[in-house]
Structures are given as C-alpha cells and as structure tokens.
C-alpha cells in the first residue's frame, strides 16, 4: 500500500495541472497579503479564494484523475492486492498531494504573514476542505461509470456546496424568520463543510458583529472548545463517510 | 522624654503643613486611635467653620458621618471608613466641604433609598478627591449639588445584578460639576447624570460596569473629553439631551446585541469629535438624533460603525475614518435625511483620476446584506459566503433595496489625518 501511495503521489505531483495549481495559490496568497497592509484584511480576501478555489480544484482534479487512471486501477486489481488497499491508496495519494499543494501554495504565506490563531484555523480548514472534496469526488466517480457524466456530477456537487446550499439556507431563513431558528441554522451549517470552515473564520474576523444576540449563539457553539471539536468531528465525518461508502462500493464494483 | 519631644516635633511639622495648606486662621483637629479625639464624629462636632479634621490611618466604624459645617475632612495614609453594609457613610450637608484621601467601603444596600458611599445633599462648592470607594451601593451621589469637584477617586464594586447595585458617580439635578480623573468599575452605570447641566466630565475611565459606562438623561450643555469607556455591559447610552460635546473619548469592547459604543437617543445639537470607537458591536446607534455632527472619529473593527434609524435627521457625518468594520452603515429605511461627506472608507473601491484625493464615484456605505441582517439577524451566519458577496456586488451595480441617496459623494482616497 505504501508503494502504491508513493507511486500515485509521485505521478500527481509531476502533472502540470498540480504545479500550476500550487503556483497560482502562491501568487494569489502572496499578492493578497502584499496589497493589504493589514493582515486581517488579507486573511479576509484569502478566505473567499480558499473557500472557492480549493474545493473546486480538489473535486475536479481528483475526479478526472480517477477516470484517467481507470486502466491503471484495472491493472492493480489484476494483481494479488486487496481492493480496499487499492482504493484507499488512491484516496491517500490524492489527499496527500492536494494538501501538499495547498500547504506550499497558501500555507507558507499564511504562516509568514498571519501567524495567529485565525491563520492556523484557515490553514487547517484549507487542508480539511481539500480532503473532504477528494473524498466526495471518489464517491462520485465510483458511482458513475461514464467519464463525462462523472465530471459533470463533480461540478454540480461543487456548485451545490459552494453556492446553492447557501442560497437554500438564506431562503429558509427568510421563510421561517418568524420562528426561533438560530439553533437549527447552526445545525444546518454543519451540513456543509465549506460553511463550517467559513463560520469558524468569520467568528474570529467579525467577532464584534458576531457578538450580537444571534451571533452570541453562534459564538457559544463554535467559539467554545467543545464546539471546535464538534466542528472538527463534522469535517472528519465529511472525509470519512464518503471515503468509506466509496470503498465499500469499489469492493463490489464490476470494473 | 525623647519620644514626647519627637512627637511634638512631628506634630508641629504637620501643624505647619496643614496650617499652610488651609487658611492661616483655621484650626486643625487631629483624630486617631492614639489621640485625644478618637472618633471622626466627635472631631467634626468640635470643629469650627474652615477647620481641618485630620484623620490618622486606621479602621473607623462610625456608621453615618454627617458633615454639616464647611470643613476639610482629610485622611492621612487613607484611613478606612467602614459602613458595615448598613449605613450611608459620609453625608455632606454643608457648602465648601472637602473630603480627601479616605477609603470608603461597604455602604448599606436598599431597594427603597439610594444609599451612597459619599452623598452631597443640596449643597455647593464641595470637593471630593483622592478617595477609594469600595463595594458601595452608590459610590458618590450628588443631589442638587452646584459647582462641585469630583477628582481622582477610584470606585469599585462587585455587583452581580443590576438591581442589587447602584451607580458609580450619580448626579441628580446638579449644575456646574467637574468630574475628572476618576476610575469606576463594577457599578451599574459608571457615571450617571440626570438633569445635570454645564458639567465637565474629563479623563475618567469607566470599565466593566454592569449596564452603561456613561449614562445621561436630560443633561444639557455638558462636555465629555478624554474619557475611556470600555467593556461595559451595554456601552454608553445618552438620551433626551441637547448641546452635548463629546471629544477625544475612547469607546472600546462593548459587545452584545444591545451594547453600543454610544447609543444616541433623542440627542440634538451636539458634537461627537475626535473619538475612537474600537471593537464594539455597534459603535454608534442613533435614534431620533438630529443636528449631531460626527467628525474626525476613528471607527475601527466594529461590527457596525453606524446604525442610523430613519428617525434621525440633519446629522452630519464628515471626515471620519472607517477601518475594518464588518458593516460601515446600517439603516432601517430608505429615507435619508443625513449627510455623509469626505469620510475615508476602507471598503471604497472607486478611483481618483484627477488625483485630488477625492474619489470620483460616490461610495454607498450601506450594503444589501446589512439590510438583510438588520431584518433577519440569524442571516449573519451566511456572511462572507460567495453567494452573499455576489448579492452585495449586484446591489452595488444596480441599487434596488439599499437607500439610493445614502452615499458619500466625496469619499477620501486616503485615511483622514487626525
């Protein structure tokens, strides 16, 4: 398994898209902090980029990579190897290389310019988001045989998490504004990993505004240590669950 | 023999210094555990007008001390006056009284009466300085006082609930007071002025009080400068007053849904200048305010820099710096009766082609999402999501929901130099 992961990581890191992704992240993060004299504002600008680009690249790149390596996977399956091990090394390879790209591209810049708790949370959410969307893409690609449809599904999933979900939440908020819905809103955000990371960072950047009445509820939940742990657990579930389901499906898949 | 001479010399020195400090003719009465006069009450009893009653270090439990003649009550090395949680400690019922250098602690508590550490009853020219007031119900209470000086006092209480604690410096129906360099902590309101006029409030620090750091009602023609109001339960609230001057104050860390840097309710003809508002949930909340000039202030890292209700009119907001606030301006209506001029907004994205330091396109400080959050506070959780940013951008292009007229036509390109 170690050998497989090593091989996959080496293969991915050599690809031009991966190098371009790293460089683009590096350039964006660096310029964002160089333009803004205030690191807090830099973090703010970077926030949207991370919540936007990282999931997009992670999900699409992994989906395409898996479809492109279908022959390689078939070859591996014909070897005396466990299917679980094959699929999990695919996952591990993709996760590792995408996390590494994020770390090199944005991580170093964040650590240099924003050495603070906010910076660390941002770094952690970037890495976790990369992993979440690799796991989600695995699920999409194991379920759909056709490459074009698979990539389409990946894009739709990204669109859903990045935009449609928020629109739905806003719609629900406005519809049920007469009811005490603050707690359900907290529960709702936990259903979207992008929102989860956004709220965690929001609570640090816009702390004054978030201290309003409803804000205090958000802060009581996400601001406390137990809330942070719950948020982390949710993120890990978002990685673990799709990875587990896709592995189970891959085991019995007719290749 | 030696000891008595020593004592006499010491006494003489003190006599001389005290004598020089007061009028030459006035006498000094010494009170202390080791002296002929052991109680402050007796000391005051035998004192004549203009005398100084000098109190030695020590603990005095004398219940209510009434000062009914114009004397100076001075503590040496901060003697402690203990109210044993039963009495009002010092009651001033004469003009021209000075109370200096005491620790006044543990006054009584009551839901019926306003029991205070030091209270002035309808008198004038009283000075209260350099005292430490601990754990009192009300700290210093001025009732119909005129031309009094309250300076250098430290007030601290440990109130748990608003109804169980009084205000730090409380003034009712007074005039021409000077409240300067005091520090108030843990009371209900730090400084409370009602029907108090022509008063100077300077260089005070009001920190961590349960309700308001500063609170005034019907208190006209007062000036507040160089004060710091921080971490109070609900910030600062000023109501039903005209001709207020607030300058060079700092309003900081007032967090909560109904906590404000300043809440202006029915305030008119006033100036708010050169103040600093930092990390408040709402820096300024205006309701029914008119002809208020907000100029040269710094709004930094607040949730909302200005919340202006539709009931406000003819207010001028000019040459302020808005830096790193979550929302710059919020309002509850499309009616705009206030003017914004030459402010610096860090969110401004316009350009300055003629390089005159003034942006060429107007800045609209109210964002669509601030209007939505105003109506549905829980929507705050979606703030800074991509969808919300998109909504705000669209609204900036084609204003639909936000008040079209609420704009700064001459936004500064660089922060205003203050």
UniProtKB/TrEMBL annotation, chain A:
<feature type="transmembrane region" description="Helical">
    <location>
        <begin position="154"/>
        <end position="176"/>
    </location>
</feature>
<feature type="transmembrane region" description="Helical">
    <location>
        <begin position="12"/>
        <end position="34"/>
    </location>
</feature>
<feature type="transmembrane region" description="Helical">
    <location>
        <begin position="88"/>
        <end position="114"/>
    </location>
</feature>
<protein>
    <submittedName>
        <fullName>ABC transporter permease</fullName>
    </submittedName>
</protein>
<feature type="transmembrane region" description="Helical">
    <location>
        <begin position="228"/>
        <end position="245"/>
    </location>
</feature>
<keyword id="KW-0812">Transmembrane</keyword>
<feature type="transmembrane region" description="Helical">
    <location>
        <begin position="120"/>
        <end position="142"/>
    </location>
</feature>
<keyword id="KW-0472">Membrane</keyword>
<keyword id="KW-1133">Transmembrane helix</keyword>
<feature type="transmembrane region" description="Helical">
    <location>
        <begin position="46"/>
        <end position="67"/>
    </location>
</feature>
From TrEMBL, chain B:
<dbReference type="InterPro" id="IPR006626">
    <property type="entry name" value="PbH1"/>
</dbReference>
<dbReference type="InterPro" id="IPR051550">
    <property type="entry name" value="SCF-Subunits/Alg-Epimerases"/>
</dbReference>
<dbReference type="InterPro" id="IPR007742">
    <property type="entry name" value="NosD_dom"/>
</dbReference>
<dbReference type="InterPro" id="IPR011050">
    <property type="entry name" value="Pectin_lyase_fold/virulence"/>
</dbReference>
<comment type="pathway">
    <text>Protein modification; protein ubiquitination.</text>
</comment>
<dbReference type="InterPro" id="IPR026464">
    <property type="entry name" value="NosD_copper_fam"/>
</dbReference>
<dbReference type="InterPro" id="IPR022441">
    <property type="entry name" value="Para_beta_helix_rpt-2"/>
</dbReference>
<dbReference type="InterPro" id="IPR006633">
    <property type="entry name" value="Carb-bd_sugar_hydrolysis-dom"/>
</dbReference>
<dbReference type="InterPro" id="IPR012334">
    <property type="entry name" value="Pectin_lyas_fold"/>
</dbReference>
<keyword id="KW-0677">Repeat</keyword>
<keyword id="KW-0833">Ubl conjugation pathway</keyword>
<dbReference type="Pfam" id="PF05048">
    <property type="entry name" value="NosD"/>
</dbReference>
<feature type="domain" description="Carbohydrate-binding/sugar hydrolysis">
    <location>
        <begin position="47"/>
        <end position="194"/>
    </location>
</feature>
<protein>
    <submittedName>
        <fullName>Nitrous oxide reductase family maturation protein NosD</fullName>
    </submittedName>
</protein>
């Amino acid at each position: 398994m170690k050998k497989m992961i090593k091989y996959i990581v080496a293969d991915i890191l050599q690809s031009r898209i991966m190098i371009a992704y790293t460089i683009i992240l590096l350039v964006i993060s660096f310029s964002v902090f160089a333009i803004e004299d205030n690191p807090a504002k830099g973090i703010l600008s970077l926030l949207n980029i991370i919540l936007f680009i990282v999931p997009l690249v992670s999900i699409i790149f992994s989906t395409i990579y898996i479809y492109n390596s279908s022959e390689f996977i078939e070859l591996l399956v014909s070897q005396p190897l466990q299917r679980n091990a094959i699929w999990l090394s695919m996952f591990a390879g993709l996760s590792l290389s995408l996390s590494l790209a994020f770390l090199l591209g944005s991580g170093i810049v964040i650590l240099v310019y924003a050495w603070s708790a906010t910076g660390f949370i941002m770094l952690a959410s970037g890495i976790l988001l990369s992993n979440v969307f690799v796991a989600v893409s695995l699920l999409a690609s194991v379920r759909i045989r056709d490459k074009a449809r698979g990539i389409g599904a990946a894009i739709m999933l990204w669109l859903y998490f990045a935009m449609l979900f928020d629109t739905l939440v806003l719609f629900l908020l406005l519809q049920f504004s007469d009811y005490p819905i603050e707690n359900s809103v907290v529960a709702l955000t936990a259903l979207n990993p992008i929102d989860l990371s956004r709220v965690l960072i929001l609570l640090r950047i816009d702390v004054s505004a978030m201290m309003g009445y409803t804000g205090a509820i958000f802060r009581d939940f996400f601001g406390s240590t137990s809330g942070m742990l719950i948020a982390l657990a949710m993120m890990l579930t978002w990685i673990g669950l799709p990875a587990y389901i896709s592995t189970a499906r891959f085991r019995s898949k007719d290749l | 023999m030696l000891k008595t001479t020593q004592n006499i010399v010491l006494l003489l020195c003190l006599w001389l210094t005290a004598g020089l400090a007061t009028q030459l003719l006035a006498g000094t009465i010494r009170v202390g555990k080791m002296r002929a006069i052991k109680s402050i009450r007796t000391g005051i009893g035998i004192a004549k007008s203009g005398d100084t009653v000098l109190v030695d270090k020590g603990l005095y439990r004398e219940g209510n001390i009434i000062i009914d003649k114009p004397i100076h009550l001075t503590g040496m090395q901060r003697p402690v006056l203990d109210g044993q949680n039963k009495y009002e400690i010092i009651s001033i019922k004469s003009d021209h009284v000075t109370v200096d250098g005491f620790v006044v602690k543990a006054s009584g508590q009551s839901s019926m009466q306003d029991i205070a550490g030091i209270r002035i009853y309808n008198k004038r020219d009283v000075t209260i300085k350099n005292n430490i007031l601990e754990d009192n119900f009300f700290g210093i209470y001025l009732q119909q006082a005129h031309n009094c000086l309250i300076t250098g006092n430290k007030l601290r209480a440990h109130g748990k609930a608003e109804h169980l604690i009084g205000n730090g410096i409380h003034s009712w129906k007074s005039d021409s007071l000077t409240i300067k360099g005091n520090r108030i902590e843990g009371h209900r309101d730090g400084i409370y002025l009602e029907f108090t006029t022509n008063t100077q409030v300077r260089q005070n620090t009001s920190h961590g009080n349960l309700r308001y750091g500063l609170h005034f009602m019907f208190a006209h023609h007062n000036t507040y400068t160089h004060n710091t109001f921080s971490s109070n339960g609900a910030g600062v609230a000023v109501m039903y007053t005209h001709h207020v001057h607030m300058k060079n104050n700092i309003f900081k860390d007032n967090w909560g849904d109904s906590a404000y840097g300043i809440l202006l309710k029915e305030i008119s003809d006033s100036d708010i200048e050169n103040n600093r508002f930092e990390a408040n949930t709402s820096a300024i909340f205006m309701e029914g305010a008119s002809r208020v000039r907000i100029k040269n202030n710094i709004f930094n890292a607040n949730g909302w820099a200005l919340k202006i209700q539709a009931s406000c009119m003819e207010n001028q907001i000019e040459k302020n710096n808005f830096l790193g606030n979550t929302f710059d301006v919020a309002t509850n209506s499309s009616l705009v009766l206030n003017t914004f001029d030459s402010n610096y907004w860090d969110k401004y994205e316009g350009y300055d082609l003629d390089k005159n330091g003034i942006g060429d396109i107007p800045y609209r400080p109210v964002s669509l999402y601030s209007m939505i959050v105003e109506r549905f506070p829980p929507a705050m959780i979606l703030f800074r999501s991509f969808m919300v940013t998109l909504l705000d951008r669209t609204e900036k292009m084609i204003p639909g929901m936000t008040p079209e007229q609420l704009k700064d036509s001459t936004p500064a390109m660089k922060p205003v130099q203050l």
